[in-house]
Design goal:
about 200 residues, five-stranded antiparallel sheet
Length: about 200
Amino acid sequence: MFRQLKNIESAFRHVKLFSIFLITACISLCGYTIYVSLKEVSAMQGKIYILYNGKLLQALAADRKTNIPVELKDHITTFHYWFFTLDPDEKENTKHLTKALYLADGSAKTVYDNLKESGFYQNVISGNVAQRIETDSIRLDLKDQVYSFRYYGKVTITRPTSIVKRSLVTEGILRPVSQSDNNPHGFLIERWRIIDNHDLKISTR
């Protein structure tokens, strides 16, 4: 009987030791899993995935200050694209110009109003004219909080009987504003003006 009790006590001790070992192993495994998971989450926070043309692309998150020149240039390019891309279609032109005017202040609206008053947009429609713009370069001055720029590009005007290539140079300043669906970069072009727009080449069709 004493031997039986001794065996039970020995078995209980073994079970107790095994349970302590198992609990310790589970706690260690859980701790390691949490550590690895937190490390992975921390690494993933610096990554952004973008779906582009059906493909998943990885981008790296960075401080906006490091990307300001890229954002400024894209904002300026986008504004000029929408302002100067015209077709013999009033609805399309209105849509393009509305998008452009969201990216700039009243100085761009003044240029638009002057062109509209002179009958420029009506002549584009009645004359079956298509206008396209190509960016050559953009010069930025990032010294101050208000960023100044000078835009260099070429405008191609296609008429039924001729094709005209024109030089386009504009300048202005950019001010940070709140980002929105209509202004995703969060900049506003101010004091915008056209400083050169002369013919480079005229060819017949």
